[in-house]
Design goal:
Blueprint (H helix, E strand, L loop, with lengths): L17 H11 L12 H14 L8 H16 L3 E3 L1 H6 L9 E3 L6 H16 L3 E5 L9 E2 L4 E2 L3 H16 L8 E6 L5 H8 L8 E7 L1 H9 L6 E3 L6 E3 L15 E2 L14 H15 L3 E4 H6 L11 E2 L6 E2 L4 E8 L4 E4 L2 E4 L1 H21 L5 H10 L2 E6 L1 H8 L6 H29 L9 H4 L19 H5 L12 E5 L5 E5 L1 H10 L4 H10 L10 H6 L8 H12 L9 E4 L5 H13 L4 E6 L8 E2 L2
Parallel strand pairs: 2-3, 3-6, 6-7, 7-11, 14-17, 20-21
Antiparallel strand pairs: 1-14, 2-14, 4-5, 8-9, 9-10, 11-21, 12-13, 15-16, 18-19, 18-22
Length: 612
Protein backbone atom coordinates (compact mmCIF):
# COMPACT_ATOMS: atom_id res chain seq x y z
CA UNK A 1 0.00 0.00 0.00
CA UNK A 2 1.15 3.48 -0.78
CA UNK A 3 2.77 5.50 2.01
CA UNK A 4 0.33 8.34 1.23
CA UNK A 5 -2.44 6.45 3.02
CA UNK A 6 -0.60 6.74 6.35
CA UNK A 7 -2.16 9.39 8.60
CA UNK A 8 -0.31 11.01 11.48
CA UNK A 9 -2.14 10.57 14.78
CA UNK A 10 -3.57 13.84 16.18
CA UNK A 11 -3.55 12.59 19.76
CA UNK A 12 -2.24 9.91 22.13
CA UNK A 13 -1.91 6.38 20.76
CA UNK A 14 -4.58 3.88 21.84
CA UNK A 15 -3.87 1.49 24.68
CA UNK A 16 -4.58 -1.97 23.27
CA UNK A 17 -4.49 -5.55 24.51
CA UNK A 18 -2.11 -8.09 23.04
CA UNK A 19 -5.02 -9.82 21.27
CA UNK A 20 -6.16 -6.50 19.81
CA UNK A 21 -2.70 -5.83 18.42
CA UNK A 22 -2.58 -9.31 16.92
CA UNK A 23 -5.89 -8.80 15.11
CA UNK A 24 -4.99 -5.33 13.89
CA UNK A 25 -1.64 -6.50 12.54
CA UNK A 26 -3.22 -9.49 10.87
CA UNK A 27 -6.11 -7.82 9.10
CA UNK A 28 -6.40 -4.05 9.51
CA UNK A 29 -3.09 -2.19 9.42
CA UNK A 30 -1.60 -1.10 6.10
CA UNK A 31 1.22 -3.35 4.89
CA UNK A 32 3.93 -2.88 2.30
CA UNK A 33 4.46 -5.12 -0.71
CA UNK A 34 6.42 -7.54 1.46
CA UNK A 35 3.56 -7.96 3.92
CA UNK A 36 5.15 -5.89 6.71
CA UNK A 37 2.94 -3.51 8.71
CA UNK A 38 3.84 0.09 7.94
CA UNK A 39 0.95 1.61 9.89
CA UNK A 40 0.64 1.93 13.66
CA UNK A 41 -2.76 1.50 15.38
CA UNK A 42 -2.95 5.22 16.13
CA UNK A 43 -2.39 5.95 12.44
CA UNK A 44 -5.22 3.55 11.54
CA UNK A 45 -7.66 5.36 13.83
CA UNK A 46 -6.42 8.69 12.46
CA UNK A 47 -7.00 7.46 8.90
CA UNK A 48 -10.60 6.53 9.74
CA UNK A 49 -11.24 9.74 11.70
CA UNK A 50 -9.85 11.84 8.85
CA UNK A 51 -12.22 10.32 6.29
CA UNK A 52 -15.20 10.83 8.61
CA UNK A 53 -14.17 14.40 9.48
CA UNK A 54 -13.68 15.40 5.84
CA UNK A 55 -17.41 14.88 5.27
CA UNK A 56 -18.09 17.86 7.55
CA UNK A 57 -16.95 20.10 4.68
CA UNK A 58 -20.11 19.14 2.78
CA UNK A 59 -22.12 20.78 5.55
CA UNK A 60 -20.16 23.99 5.80
CA UNK A 61 -17.19 23.19 8.05
CA UNK A 62 -13.93 25.06 7.33
CA UNK A 63 -10.47 23.53 7.59
CA UNK A 64 -10.06 24.45 11.25
CA UNK A 65 -13.40 22.88 12.15
CA UNK A 66 -12.53 19.77 10.15
CA UNK A 67 -9.34 19.43 12.18
CA UNK A 68 -11.39 19.68 15.36
CA UNK A 69 -13.77 16.98 14.14
CA UNK A 70 -10.78 14.83 13.19
CA UNK A 71 -9.56 14.97 16.78
CA UNK A 72 -13.05 14.28 18.19
CA UNK A 73 -13.53 11.21 16.02
CA UNK A 74 -9.98 10.06 16.74
CA UNK A 75 -10.50 10.34 20.50
CA UNK A 76 -13.88 8.56 20.21
CA UNK A 77 -12.31 5.50 18.59
CA UNK A 78 -8.91 5.38 20.32
CA UNK A 79 -10.66 5.51 23.69
CA UNK A 80 -12.39 2.30 22.53
CA UNK A 81 -15.71 3.82 23.58
CA UNK A 82 -16.96 3.19 20.03
CA UNK A 83 -15.83 1.36 16.92
CA UNK A 84 -17.43 1.25 13.47
CA UNK A 85 -17.88 -1.96 11.49
CA UNK A 86 -14.76 -3.65 10.13
CA UNK A 87 -14.98 -2.39 6.51
CA UNK A 88 -14.69 1.18 7.79
CA UNK A 89 -11.55 0.35 9.77
CA UNK A 90 -10.04 -1.60 6.91
CA UNK A 91 -11.00 0.56 3.95
CA UNK A 92 -11.23 4.20 5.08
CA UNK A 93 -8.69 6.26 3.17
CA UNK A 94 -7.69 3.26 1.05
CA UNK A 95 -10.72 1.82 -0.68
CA UNK A 96 -14.10 3.48 -0.75
CA UNK A 97 -16.43 0.80 0.68
CA UNK A 98 -17.14 1.39 4.37
CA UNK A 99 -20.43 -0.44 5.01
CA UNK A 100 -20.82 -4.00 6.28
CA UNK A 101 -24.42 -4.98 5.51
CA UNK A 102 -26.10 -5.55 2.17
CA UNK A 103 -29.19 -7.30 0.85
CA UNK A 104 -29.41 -8.15 -2.84
CA UNK A 105 -32.49 -9.29 -4.75
CA UNK A 106 -32.41 -12.51 -6.77
CA UNK A 107 -34.83 -12.25 -9.67
CA UNK A 108 -36.30 -15.34 -11.34
CA UNK A 109 -34.24 -15.24 -14.54
CA UNK A 110 -30.76 -16.25 -15.61
CA UNK A 111 -29.91 -12.59 -16.16
CA UNK A 112 -31.21 -11.60 -12.72
CA UNK A 113 -29.49 -14.45 -10.91
CA UNK A 114 -26.07 -13.84 -12.42
CA UNK A 115 -26.34 -10.08 -12.04
CA UNK A 116 -26.78 -10.76 -8.32
CA UNK A 117 -23.77 -13.11 -8.41
CA UNK A 118 -21.64 -10.33 -9.92
CA UNK A 119 -22.85 -7.80 -7.37
CA UNK A 120 -22.11 -10.27 -4.56
CA UNK A 121 -18.55 -10.64 -5.80
CA UNK A 122 -18.01 -6.88 -5.88
CA UNK A 123 -19.45 -6.33 -2.40
CA UNK A 124 -17.56 -9.20 -0.78
CA UNK A 125 -14.30 -8.27 -2.48
CA UNK A 126 -14.63 -4.93 -0.69
CA UNK A 127 -15.37 -6.55 2.70
CA UNK A 128 -19.18 -6.45 2.86
CA UNK A 129 -21.58 -9.23 3.81
CA UNK A 130 -24.65 -10.12 1.76
CA UNK A 131 -28.15 -11.40 2.48
CA UNK A 132 -30.58 -12.96 0.02
CA UNK A 133 -34.10 -14.31 -0.23
CA UNK A 134 -34.54 -17.27 -2.57
CA UNK A 135 -38.33 -16.95 -2.55
CA UNK A 136 -38.75 -15.64 -6.09
CA UNK A 137 -36.90 -18.50 -7.74
CA UNK A 138 -39.26 -21.04 -9.29
CA UNK A 139 -39.14 -24.50 -7.71
CA UNK A 140 -37.25 -27.52 -9.01
CA UNK A 141 -38.95 -29.04 -12.03
CA UNK A 142 -40.97 -25.95 -12.92
CA UNK A 143 -41.26 -25.02 -16.57
CA UNK A 144 -38.78 -22.73 -18.34
CA UNK A 145 -40.65 -21.22 -21.28
CA UNK A 146 -37.60 -20.03 -23.20
CA UNK A 147 -36.05 -23.50 -23.47
CA UNK A 148 -39.04 -25.77 -23.08
CA UNK A 149 -37.20 -27.53 -20.26
CA UNK A 150 -37.43 -27.40 -16.48
CA UNK A 151 -35.45 -25.49 -13.87
CA UNK A 152 -32.91 -27.04 -11.54
CA UNK A 153 -34.34 -24.94 -8.69
CA UNK A 154 -33.07 -22.55 -6.01
CA UNK A 155 -30.55 -24.93 -4.41
CA UNK A 156 -28.46 -25.20 -7.57
CA UNK A 157 -28.26 -21.42 -7.88
CA UNK A 158 -27.59 -21.07 -4.15
CA UNK A 159 -24.51 -23.21 -4.75
CA UNK A 160 -23.28 -20.67 -7.34
CA UNK A 161 -23.46 -17.88 -4.75
CA UNK A 162 -21.58 -20.02 -2.24
CA UNK A 163 -18.81 -20.86 -4.71
CA UNK A 164 -18.55 -17.18 -5.64
CA UNK A 165 -17.85 -16.36 -2.00
CA UNK A 166 -15.24 -19.13 -1.88
CA UNK A 167 -13.50 -17.70 -4.94
CA UNK A 168 -13.52 -14.14 -3.60
CA UNK A 169 -12.29 -15.33 -0.20
CA UNK A 170 -8.72 -15.80 -1.36
CA UNK A 171 -7.95 -12.12 -1.85
CA UNK A 172 -10.45 -10.59 0.55
CA UNK A 173 -9.71 -8.79 3.82
CA UNK A 174 -12.06 -10.98 5.81
CA UNK A 175 -14.16 -14.11 5.61
CA UNK A 176 -17.07 -13.80 3.20
CA UNK A 177 -20.44 -14.03 4.96
CA UNK A 178 -23.93 -14.61 3.59
CA UNK A 179 -27.46 -15.06 4.81
CA UNK A 180 -29.79 -17.24 2.75
CA UNK A 181 -33.49 -17.07 3.51
CA UNK A 182 -36.49 -18.96 2.23
CA UNK A 183 -40.15 -18.80 3.12
CA UNK A 184 -41.55 -21.91 4.75
CA UNK A 185 -44.19 -21.77 2.02
CA UNK A 186 -41.77 -22.24 -0.90
CA UNK A 187 -42.12 -25.67 -2.57
CA UNK A 188 -38.36 -26.31 -2.25
CA UNK A 189 -38.26 -25.65 1.51
CA UNK A 190 -37.47 -29.26 2.42
CA UNK A 191 -34.58 -29.28 -0.07
CA UNK A 192 -33.35 -25.99 1.40
CA UNK A 193 -33.28 -27.45 4.90
CA UNK A 194 -31.77 -30.76 3.79
CA UNK A 195 -28.93 -29.05 1.90
CA UNK A 196 -27.63 -27.23 4.97
CA UNK A 197 -27.71 -30.32 7.18
CA UNK A 198 -24.55 -31.36 5.34
CA UNK A 199 -22.11 -29.38 7.49
CA UNK A 200 -19.48 -29.42 4.75
CA UNK A 201 -21.79 -27.63 2.31
CA UNK A 202 -22.55 -23.90 2.12
CA UNK A 203 -20.11 -23.17 4.93
CA UNK A 204 -20.11 -19.44 4.10
CA UNK A 205 -23.90 -19.20 4.50
CA UNK A 206 -26.11 -18.84 7.52
CA UNK A 207 -29.67 -19.82 6.71
CA UNK A 208 -33.01 -18.80 8.14
CA UNK A 209 -36.58 -19.83 7.43
CA UNK A 210 -39.23 -17.12 7.26
CA UNK A 211 -42.57 -17.73 8.94
CA UNK A 212 -45.63 -15.51 9.07
CA UNK A 213 -47.79 -14.59 12.04
CA UNK A 214 -50.72 -16.54 10.62
CA UNK A 215 -48.59 -19.67 10.26
CA UNK A 216 -47.31 -19.32 13.83
CA UNK A 217 -50.84 -18.85 15.13
CA UNK A 218 -51.94 -22.01 13.32
CA UNK A 219 -49.04 -23.86 14.93
CA UNK A 220 -49.79 -22.55 18.41
CA UNK A 221 -53.53 -23.27 18.09
CA UNK A 222 -53.13 -26.91 17.05
CA UNK A 223 -50.74 -27.37 14.15
CA UNK A 224 -52.85 -30.14 12.64
CA UNK A 225 -53.63 -28.18 9.46
CA UNK A 226 -51.90 -29.35 6.30
CA UNK A 227 -48.87 -27.31 5.34
CA UNK A 228 -49.47 -25.55 2.01
CA UNK A 229 -46.70 -24.34 -0.30
CA UNK A 230 -47.01 -22.07 -3.33
CA UNK A 231 -45.17 -21.80 -6.63
CA UNK A 232 -43.96 -18.16 -6.73
CA UNK A 233 -44.20 -18.10 -10.53
CA UNK A 234 -47.79 -19.32 -10.94
CA UNK A 235 -49.42 -18.96 -7.53
CA UNK A 236 -50.45 -22.62 -7.70
CA UNK A 237 -50.67 -24.25 -4.27
CA UNK A 238 -49.39 -27.72 -3.37
CA UNK A 239 -49.10 -30.16 -0.49
CA UNK A 240 -45.86 -31.91 0.45
CA UNK A 241 -46.31 -35.71 0.47
CA UNK A 242 -44.58 -37.64 3.21
CA UNK A 243 -41.66 -39.75 2.05
CA UNK A 244 -40.29 -37.25 -0.47
CA UNK A 245 -36.68 -37.76 -1.59
CA UNK A 246 -35.43 -34.61 0.14
CA UNK A 247 -32.47 -34.19 -2.18
CA UNK A 248 -34.11 -34.90 -5.52
CA UNK A 249 -37.84 -34.17 -5.39
CA UNK A 250 -39.40 -31.81 -7.92
CA UNK A 251 -42.68 -29.99 -8.45
CA UNK A 252 -44.21 -33.06 -10.14
CA UNK A 253 -43.78 -35.00 -6.89
CA UNK A 254 -46.05 -32.59 -5.01
CA UNK A 255 -49.83 -32.75 -4.71
CA UNK A 256 -51.54 -29.95 -6.63
CA UNK A 257 -54.43 -28.41 -4.71
CA UNK A 258 -57.71 -27.31 -6.22
CA UNK A 259 -60.19 -24.99 -4.51
CA UNK A 260 -62.53 -27.86 -3.58
CA UNK A 261 -59.76 -30.24 -2.61
CA UNK A 262 -59.20 -30.65 1.16
CA UNK A 263 -57.37 -33.95 1.63
CA UNK A 264 -56.70 -34.88 5.24
CA UNK A 265 -55.70 -38.49 5.34
CA UNK A 266 -52.20 -38.44 6.83
CA UNK A 267 -50.40 -38.55 3.50
CA UNK A 268 -49.06 -35.00 3.72
CA UNK A 269 -46.94 -32.84 5.98
CA UNK A 270 -48.86 -30.79 8.52
CA UNK A 271 -47.88 -27.47 10.07
CA UNK A 272 -46.68 -29.37 13.15
CA UNK A 273 -44.62 -31.71 10.99
CA UNK A 274 -42.81 -28.78 9.39
CA UNK A 275 -42.18 -27.24 12.80
CA UNK A 276 -40.74 -30.51 14.05
CA UNK A 277 -38.37 -30.61 11.08
CA UNK A 278 -37.21 -27.05 11.76
CA UNK A 279 -36.47 -27.64 15.42
CA UNK A 280 -34.81 -31.01 14.80
CA UNK A 281 -32.50 -29.45 12.19
CA UNK A 282 -31.62 -26.58 14.52
CA UNK A 283 -31.00 -29.01 17.39
CA UNK A 284 -28.68 -31.02 15.20
CA UNK A 285 -26.63 -28.22 13.61
CA UNK A 286 -27.73 -24.79 14.84
CA UNK A 287 -29.54 -24.11 11.57
CA UNK A 288 -31.91 -22.90 10.36
CA UNK A 289 -32.55 -19.78 12.33
CA UNK A 290 -36.14 -18.60 12.38
CA UNK A 291 -37.28 -15.21 11.12
CA UNK A 292 -40.66 -13.72 12.02
CA UNK A 293 -41.07 -11.79 8.80
CA UNK A 294 -44.33 -10.02 9.67
CA UNK A 295 -42.79 -8.76 12.91
CA UNK A 296 -39.90 -7.36 10.87
CA UNK A 297 -42.20 -5.60 8.44
CA UNK A 298 -44.24 -3.98 11.18
CA UNK A 299 -41.07 -1.95 11.85
CA UNK A 300 -40.26 -1.35 8.17
CA UNK A 301 -39.68 2.43 8.14
CA UNK A 302 -40.32 2.77 4.39
CA UNK A 303 -43.21 0.40 3.54
CA UNK A 304 -44.02 2.41 0.41
CA UNK A 305 -40.78 1.04 -1.08
CA UNK A 306 -41.87 -2.58 -0.57
CA UNK A 307 -41.60 -5.40 1.94
CA UNK A 308 -38.39 -6.44 3.64
CA UNK A 309 -37.60 -10.03 2.66
CA UNK A 310 -34.05 -10.62 3.95
CA UNK A 311 -31.42 -9.47 6.45
CA UNK A 312 -27.66 -9.11 6.57
CA UNK A 313 -25.60 -12.25 7.42
CA UNK A 314 -26.04 -12.09 11.21
CA UNK A 315 -29.70 -11.12 11.16
CA UNK A 316 -29.57 -7.79 13.01
CA UNK A 317 -30.26 -5.59 10.01
CA UNK A 318 -33.40 -6.29 7.95
CA UNK A 319 -33.00 -4.48 4.64
CA UNK A 320 -34.92 -3.84 1.43
CA UNK A 321 -33.51 -5.27 -1.81
CA UNK A 322 -30.37 -3.28 -2.74
CA UNK A 323 -30.27 -1.58 0.65
CA UNK A 324 -27.11 -1.24 2.76
CA UNK A 325 -26.32 -0.21 6.32
CA UNK A 326 -23.26 0.94 8.23
CA UNK A 327 -22.88 -0.37 11.77
CA UNK A 328 -21.07 0.84 14.85
CA UNK A 329 -21.04 -0.25 18.48
CA UNK A 330 -20.63 1.51 21.81
CA UNK A 331 -18.47 -0.26 24.40
CA UNK A 332 -20.62 -0.10 27.53
CA UNK A 333 -17.74 -0.98 29.86
CA UNK A 334 -16.29 2.50 29.29
CA UNK A 335 -19.29 4.12 30.97
CA UNK A 336 -19.17 2.25 34.27
CA UNK A 337 -17.81 4.34 37.13
CA UNK A 338 -16.83 3.03 40.53
CA UNK A 339 -16.71 5.05 43.73
CA UNK A 340 -16.81 3.95 47.38
CA UNK A 341 -16.99 0.33 46.21
CA UNK A 342 -20.20 1.09 44.30
CA UNK A 343 -20.46 0.97 40.52
CA UNK A 344 -22.89 2.87 38.31
CA UNK A 345 -23.36 4.16 34.79
CA UNK A 346 -22.20 7.60 33.71
CA UNK A 347 -25.36 8.35 31.76
CA UNK A 348 -24.29 11.87 30.81
CA UNK A 349 -21.08 10.63 29.18
CA UNK A 350 -23.03 7.89 27.41
CA UNK A 351 -25.52 10.42 26.04
CA UNK A 352 -22.71 12.60 24.67
CA UNK A 353 -21.05 9.58 23.06
CA UNK A 354 -24.31 8.40 21.44
CA UNK A 355 -24.75 11.81 19.84
CA UNK A 356 -21.22 11.79 18.42
CA UNK A 357 -21.58 8.20 17.19
CA UNK A 358 -24.75 8.99 15.23
CA UNK A 359 -22.95 11.86 13.50
CA UNK A 360 -19.94 9.63 12.82
CA UNK A 361 -22.10 6.96 11.19
CA UNK A 362 -24.12 9.50 9.23
CA UNK A 363 -20.87 10.88 7.84
CA UNK A 364 -19.75 7.37 6.88
CA UNK A 365 -22.77 7.17 4.56
CA UNK A 366 -21.49 10.18 2.63
CA UNK A 367 -17.91 8.93 2.55
CA UNK A 368 -18.78 5.39 1.43
CA UNK A 369 -18.35 4.44 -2.23
CA UNK A 370 -20.70 1.54 -2.92
CA UNK A 371 -19.69 -1.02 -5.56
CA UNK A 372 -23.31 -1.43 -6.75
CA UNK A 373 -25.06 1.62 -8.19
CA UNK A 374 -28.56 0.61 -7.07
CA UNK A 375 -27.28 0.27 -3.51
CA UNK A 376 -25.60 3.67 -3.67
CA UNK A 377 -28.93 5.27 -4.62
CA UNK A 378 -31.01 3.53 -1.94
CA UNK A 379 -28.42 3.97 0.81
CA UNK A 380 -28.41 7.71 0.06
CA UNK A 381 -32.20 7.85 -0.01
CA UNK A 382 -32.81 6.01 3.29
CA UNK A 383 -29.52 6.65 5.14
CA UNK A 384 -29.89 3.67 7.48
CA UNK A 385 -27.32 3.30 10.23
CA UNK A 386 -27.04 0.67 12.95
CA UNK A 387 -25.78 1.93 16.30
CA UNK A 388 -25.57 -0.79 18.89
CA UNK A 389 -23.55 -1.98 21.86
CA UNK A 390 -20.77 -4.34 22.83
CA UNK A 391 -19.32 -5.23 26.20
CA UNK A 392 -22.77 -5.71 27.74
CA UNK A 393 -21.85 -8.86 29.70
CA UNK A 394 -18.65 -7.21 30.95
CA UNK A 395 -20.68 -4.16 31.93
CA UNK A 396 -22.92 -6.39 34.05
CA UNK A 397 -19.82 -7.92 35.68
CA UNK A 398 -18.59 -4.45 36.63
CA UNK A 399 -22.01 -3.49 38.00
CA UNK A 400 -22.33 -6.76 39.93
CA UNK A 401 -25.54 -7.76 38.15
CA UNK A 402 -26.16 -11.39 37.08
CA UNK A 403 -27.08 -11.76 33.40
CA UNK A 404 -29.83 -14.26 34.23
CA UNK A 405 -31.76 -12.10 36.67
CA UNK A 406 -34.70 -9.72 36.66
CA UNK A 407 -32.24 -6.94 37.44
CA UNK A 408 -30.15 -7.94 34.40
CA UNK A 409 -33.16 -7.89 32.06
CA UNK A 410 -34.30 -4.54 33.49
CA UNK A 411 -30.84 -3.02 33.00
CA UNK A 412 -30.63 -4.34 29.43
CA UNK A 413 -33.93 -2.68 28.56
CA UNK A 414 -32.90 0.52 30.35
CA UNK A 415 -29.56 0.92 28.60
CA UNK A 416 -30.94 0.15 25.14
CA UNK A 417 -33.90 2.49 25.61
CA UNK A 418 -31.51 5.22 26.69
CA UNK A 419 -29.28 4.71 23.65
CA UNK A 420 -32.25 4.46 21.29
CA UNK A 421 -33.85 7.65 22.64
CA UNK A 422 -30.60 9.62 22.55
CA UNK A 423 -29.75 8.32 19.08
CA UNK A 424 -33.13 9.37 17.77
CA UNK A 425 -32.65 12.84 19.30
CA UNK A 426 -29.26 13.07 17.59
CA UNK A 427 -30.70 11.99 14.23
CA UNK A 428 -33.47 14.57 14.62
CA UNK A 429 -30.90 17.30 15.29
CA UNK A 430 -28.95 16.25 12.20
CA UNK A 431 -32.17 16.37 10.17
CA UNK A 432 -32.64 19.99 11.23
CA UNK A 433 -29.08 20.83 10.17
CA UNK A 434 -28.70 18.65 7.08
CA UNK A 435 -32.23 17.72 6.11
CA UNK A 436 -34.12 14.45 6.70
CA UNK A 437 -33.34 11.35 4.67
CA UNK A 438 -34.75 11.83 1.12
CA UNK A 439 -37.45 9.13 1.47
CA UNK A 440 -38.69 10.63 4.75
CA UNK A 441 -41.84 12.07 3.17
CA UNK A 442 -43.33 8.60 2.58
CA UNK A 443 -41.85 6.95 5.68
CA UNK A 444 -43.47 5.99 8.97
CA UNK A 445 -41.48 8.77 10.63
CA UNK A 446 -43.68 11.32 8.85
CA UNK A 447 -46.96 9.41 8.57
CA UNK A 448 -47.03 7.97 12.10
CA UNK A 449 -44.96 10.28 14.30
CA UNK A 450 -44.38 13.47 12.28
CA UNK A 451 -40.74 13.33 13.37
CA UNK A 452 -37.98 14.50 11.07
CA UNK A 453 -35.00 12.14 11.17
CA UNK A 454 -31.76 12.04 9.27
CA UNK A 455 -31.80 8.24 9.18
CA UNK A 456 -34.63 5.81 8.35
CA UNK A 457 -33.29 3.36 10.95
CA UNK A 458 -30.79 4.21 13.66
CA UNK A 459 -30.24 1.36 16.12
CA UNK A 460 -29.52 -2.36 15.97
CA UNK A 461 -27.44 -4.85 17.97
CA UNK A 462 -24.65 -6.52 15.99
CA UNK A 463 -22.49 -9.49 17.10
CA UNK A 464 -19.27 -7.35 17.09
CA UNK A 465 -17.04 -10.37 16.60
CA UNK A 466 -13.75 -8.74 15.67
CA UNK A 467 -14.23 -5.19 16.90
CA UNK A 468 -14.93 -6.49 20.39
CA UNK A 469 -11.48 -8.13 20.32
CA UNK A 470 -9.99 -4.75 19.42
CA UNK A 471 -12.00 -3.09 22.22
CA UNK A 472 -11.09 -5.97 24.60
CA UNK A 473 -14.68 -6.51 25.70
CA UNK A 474 -17.44 -9.11 25.42
CA UNK A 475 -19.36 -9.56 22.17
CA UNK A 476 -22.55 -7.57 21.54
CA UNK A 477 -25.12 -8.45 24.20
CA UNK A 478 -23.95 -12.06 24.50
CA UNK A 479 -22.96 -13.49 27.86
CA UNK A 480 -19.27 -14.36 27.77
CA UNK A 481 -18.55 -17.74 26.20
CA UNK A 482 -16.21 -18.59 29.08
CA UNK A 483 -14.03 -16.57 31.43
CA UNK A 484 -11.08 -18.37 29.82
CA UNK A 485 -11.19 -19.69 26.27
CA UNK A 486 -9.35 -20.02 22.98
CA UNK A 487 -10.48 -18.02 19.96
CA UNK A 488 -9.78 -19.07 16.39
CA UNK A 489 -9.07 -16.24 13.94
CA UNK A 490 -9.15 -15.97 10.15
CA UNK A 491 -5.67 -17.33 9.43
CA UNK A 492 -6.26 -20.40 11.60
CA UNK A 493 -4.17 -19.16 14.52
CA UNK A 494 -5.47 -19.27 18.10
CA UNK A 495 -5.60 -16.62 20.80
CA UNK A 496 -5.97 -17.25 24.52
CA UNK A 497 -8.52 -14.98 26.18
CA UNK A 498 -8.79 -14.46 29.93
CA UNK A 499 -11.59 -12.13 30.98
CA UNK A 500 -9.79 -9.11 32.47
CA UNK A 501 -12.64 -8.15 34.81
CA UNK A 502 -12.79 -11.62 36.34
CA UNK A 503 -9.02 -11.78 36.61
CA UNK A 504 -8.90 -8.44 38.45
CA UNK A 505 -11.78 -9.46 40.71
CA UNK A 506 -10.15 -12.81 41.52
CA UNK A 507 -6.76 -11.21 42.14
CA UNK A 508 -8.33 -8.64 44.44
CA UNK A 509 -10.18 -11.43 46.26
CA UNK A 510 -7.01 -13.47 46.61
CA UNK A 511 -8.25 -16.58 44.81
CA UNK A 512 -6.73 -16.18 41.34
CA UNK A 513 -4.15 -18.72 40.23
CA UNK A 514 -2.87 -20.44 37.10
CA UNK A 515 -4.57 -23.60 38.38
CA UNK A 516 -7.91 -21.75 38.48
CA UNK A 517 -7.33 -20.42 34.98
CA UNK A 518 -6.65 -23.97 33.80
CA UNK A 519 -9.80 -25.28 35.50
CA UNK A 520 -11.96 -22.64 33.83
CA UNK A 521 -10.31 -23.22 30.46
CA UNK A 522 -11.11 -26.93 30.75
CA UNK A 523 -14.73 -26.62 31.86
CA UNK A 524 -15.92 -23.19 30.65
CA UNK A 525 -17.51 -22.35 33.98
CA UNK A 526 -16.75 -21.47 37.61
CA UNK A 527 -20.08 -22.73 38.90
CA UNK A 528 -18.64 -25.96 40.31
CA UNK A 529 -15.39 -24.43 41.62
CA UNK A 530 -16.13 -24.11 45.32
CA UNK A 531 -13.07 -22.05 46.26
CA UNK A 532 -14.57 -19.20 44.21
CA UNK A 533 -16.97 -17.28 46.51
CA UNK A 534 -20.66 -17.95 45.86
CA UNK A 535 -21.39 -14.26 45.24
CA UNK A 536 -18.72 -14.16 42.51
CA UNK A 537 -20.07 -17.36 40.96
CA UNK A 538 -23.55 -15.80 40.81
CA UNK A 539 -22.32 -12.73 38.94
CA UNK A 540 -19.76 -14.31 36.60
CA UNK A 541 -22.06 -16.70 34.78
CA UNK A 542 -21.20 -17.70 31.24
CA UNK A 543 -23.19 -18.60 28.12
CA UNK A 544 -23.81 -22.25 29.00
CA UNK A 545 -24.49 -21.51 32.67
CA UNK A 546 -27.55 -19.52 31.64
CA UNK A 547 -30.92 -21.13 30.88
CA UNK A 548 -32.22 -20.47 27.34
CA UNK A 549 -35.24 -18.50 28.57
CA UNK A 550 -32.91 -15.83 30.03
CA UNK A 551 -31.03 -15.53 26.73
CA UNK A 552 -34.33 -15.00 24.92
CA UNK A 553 -35.71 -12.59 27.49
CA UNK A 554 -32.55 -10.49 27.17
CA UNK A 555 -32.83 -10.46 23.39
CA UNK A 556 -36.46 -9.37 23.68
CA UNK A 557 -35.56 -6.64 26.18
CA UNK A 558 -33.14 -5.11 23.69
CA UNK A 559 -35.51 -5.64 20.76
CA UNK A 560 -38.18 -3.58 22.51
CA UNK A 561 -35.95 -0.50 22.12
CA UNK A 562 -34.29 -1.10 18.78
CA UNK A 563 -35.21 0.11 15.27
CA UNK A 564 -33.78 -2.85 13.39
CA UNK A 565 -33.08 -6.20 15.07
CA UNK A 566 -30.79 -7.98 17.52
CA UNK A 567 -28.08 -10.51 16.75
CA UNK A 568 -28.09 -13.08 19.56
CA UNK A 569 -27.28 -16.76 19.86
CA UNK A 570 -29.37 -18.82 22.27
CA UNK A 571 -26.82 -21.22 23.74
CA UNK A 572 -27.98 -24.71 24.64
CA UNK A 573 -25.95 -27.31 26.54
CA UNK A 574 -24.81 -30.36 24.60
CA UNK A 575 -27.31 -32.60 26.36
CA UNK A 576 -30.30 -30.33 25.59
CA UNK A 577 -33.26 -32.19 24.11
CA UNK A 578 -35.08 -31.25 20.92
CA UNK A 579 -37.97 -29.79 22.92
CA UNK A 580 -35.56 -27.15 24.28
CA UNK A 581 -35.34 -25.73 20.74
CA UNK A 582 -39.12 -25.98 20.38
CA UNK A 583 -39.63 -23.98 23.57
CA UNK A 584 -36.98 -21.42 22.65
CA UNK A 585 -38.41 -20.74 19.19
CA UNK A 586 -41.94 -20.33 20.54
CA UNK A 587 -40.84 -18.07 23.39
CA UNK A 588 -38.92 -15.83 20.98
CA UNK A 589 -42.06 -15.39 18.90
CA UNK A 590 -44.26 -14.73 21.91
CA UNK A 591 -41.87 -12.11 23.32
CA UNK A 592 -41.72 -10.13 20.06
CA UNK A 593 -38.24 -11.03 18.81
CA UNK A 594 -37.71 -10.59 15.06
CA UNK A 595 -35.76 -13.80 14.73
CA UNK A 596 -33.90 -16.43 16.70
CA UNK A 597 -30.77 -18.54 16.36
CA UNK A 598 -29.92 -21.42 18.67
CA UNK A 599 -26.69 -23.33 19.03
CA UNK A 600 -26.28 -26.58 20.96
CA UNK A 601 -22.77 -26.98 22.27
CA UNK A 602 -20.50 -29.28 20.22
CA UNK A 603 -23.10 -29.75 17.47
CA UNK A 604 -20.34 -28.78 15.01
CA UNK A 605 -16.77 -30.00 14.87
CA UNK A 606 -15.19 -26.56 14.52
CA UNK A 607 -16.31 -23.63 16.67
CA UNK A 608 -14.82 -20.11 16.61
CA UNK A 609 -14.45 -20.21 20.40
CA UNK A 610 -13.46 -23.31 22.34
CA UNK A 611 -12.07 -24.53 25.64
CA UNK A 612 -8.57 -25.90 26.15
Amino acid sequence: MAQSHIQPAPGPAPVLSENALTVLQSRYLIKDSGGRCIEAPGQLFSRVASVVADVEARYGADSGQINQWHRKYYDLTTSLKFLPNSPALMNAGRRGMLSACFVLPIEDSIEGIFEAVKQTALIQQAGGGTGFSFDKLRPTGDRVASSGGTTSGPISFWRVFSETTNAIQQGAFRRGANMGMMSLEHPDILKFLHAKQNLAAFTNFNISVKVTDSWMQTLLNSGRSLHVVENPRTGQKYLLPRGLDLENYSLNDLYKLSTEDKPDDGRFYTVSDMWDILVECAHKSGEPGLVFIDRINRDNPTPSLGRIEATNPCGEQPLLPYEACTLGSINLTKFVETSDSKAGMNWLALAETVKLCVRFLDNILDACIYPVEATARLAAANRKIGLGVMGFADCLFLLGIPYDSEEGIKFGAEVMKFINDKAREASSELAEMRGPFPNWQNSIWRTKSSQKLRNAAITCVAPTGTISIIADCSNGIEPVYSLVFVRRVLDGSKMLYVNPIFRQTAQKGGFYSKKLQQQIGNTGSIQQITNVPAQIRRIFRCAYDIEPKWHIRMQAAFQDHCDAAVSKTINLPEQAAVNAVDEAYKLAYQLGCKGITVYRRNSREIEPMSLY
